[in-house]
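Running this now, will post back.
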Amino acid sequence: MGGSPYNGSSCPPPPSFIDPNNGFCAATKTFHSLRPAVPLPPPSQPISVASYAFSLLSASSSSSSSSPPSNPAFVDALSGGASFFYPEFLSQVRTLASSLRLRLGLRRGDVAFVLSPSCLEVPFLYFALLSVGAAISPSNPASTPQEISRQFQLSRPSVAFTTSRDAHKLETFGVATVLFDSQLFRSLLNESKETDSSKRDDDSGIVHQSDVAAILYSSGTTGVPKAGAITHRAFIAMIAGFHALRREGAGPRQVALLAAPAFHAMGFFHLLKGVALGETTVVVNRMGLEDMLRAAQRHGVTQMTAAPPTVLAMSRWDGPADLRALESVMCGGAPLPEEVARRFVARFPWVVLQQVRAFFPGTSARDKWNTAGCGYGSTEGGGISRPITREESRRFRSVGRLNENFEARIVDHDSGEAVGVGRPGELWVRGPHVMMGYLDDEEANAKTFAPGSWLKTGDLCFFDRDGFLFIVDRLKEMIKYPNEEAGEIPMAFVVKQQGSTLTEHEVMEFAAKQVAPYKKIRKVAFINSIPKSASGKILRRTLATEAVSTSVSRL
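Update: finished.
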């Protein structure tokens, strides 16, 4: 499965060989993070990400004792604010972990399929599963039967958790299924058969950091969906970075509204990170925008995670909303259009809009609007870069500096050679955040990993002389235009505004004035809508199929 997991054991070059301005080592053609290294548990130490998160709680607590924070860990936004405080949360996670072992027989290496929207039961289950060493395989409840079948084929779960609303989607797979809204789950959560309190721990002694913690699925926008295996150590490394920043600049207790679904990589991680930092997480479950904003106001939410459609809806919101406590919104899952970001900043000027993997083609350096903190990451690579100060956020169009404990290379796509500062190429990254690999997909692993545990991101990037990372383009979306017979020509899909008389010729003529001759659009298709995933990501594979079947015009 991919390359061997990176554990930080390679020896970095002496500091004298690394440019202190940008982290580049000319001898190895490698960029090193300019952030202070964050210590991690030794790779051989048996510990789960759940255990690690719990161990940080005392450090995140304002109390001088080792007791957990006294604020709520999770709040249900839908039920009028039902809350679980940290002492109760920790106790019930231990009970549930015990029940999963003794009553369901779950052990290290098992896989639990979770088909559910975000709900208050999910964080209890996630932490209990991680504690016993069972990998979590979360799926979008909107997944089709074909998609679920593919996910079962890849993850091979021994048990499934879902709601009564979605249970019918799992009936044909013959796996034991537990419903969140059932008496059985409530008994697992509250009734432990273990009597020896010394055994009622999180069983971290049998969980290795190299074990798979989660199996997260790609959206399949450019091909068949893949299953990324993310280890406990990868999540530990990501949490450690956030905790290091929190430790240095600890402020008032944060209240996070988790609008990103827990089955998505961003929502999954922020659920774990919230516990490690002792935050209060407000869980959103199938709520409309008005109810969500009311929940944010009622609970004094200071930060949110959201997909682009939610940010778009907020930017258009003209109803009452007292969100003066809101400090930041982290948007991910798909690129956020510049127009939407501008509109959001105008609507909520006091809020820092942080974009994960933001890329705005055509944005010029003179556009001095502040999206304040574009970050960059992926399911496969974790959090790769981000700005951590307002000064860094002013480096417009950049996605920040390389995160702690990361190394990177910029590799020329044609020659295959690593290049230096200011030169574009495919970004390769290496570090403990990177996934183990794709399950049962050696072809994809061979294309994704290079010798030495380097992950090929597929993004064309460059580092500037100050170590800031810039995304130029997506390698997989580049078109090498030889001729139509070769199967690659520039094409436009256009959705007309109501009443528009726009023609194919006008579209192609406009584009021809903006680009070099070889980049001119050769085909145009007018369609009713651009197909997108639930997170707002354009379904390019669907458009490619459309290109074959749709009658189009040629210049």
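Residues 86-102 form the longest helix (17 residues). More later if anyone needs it.
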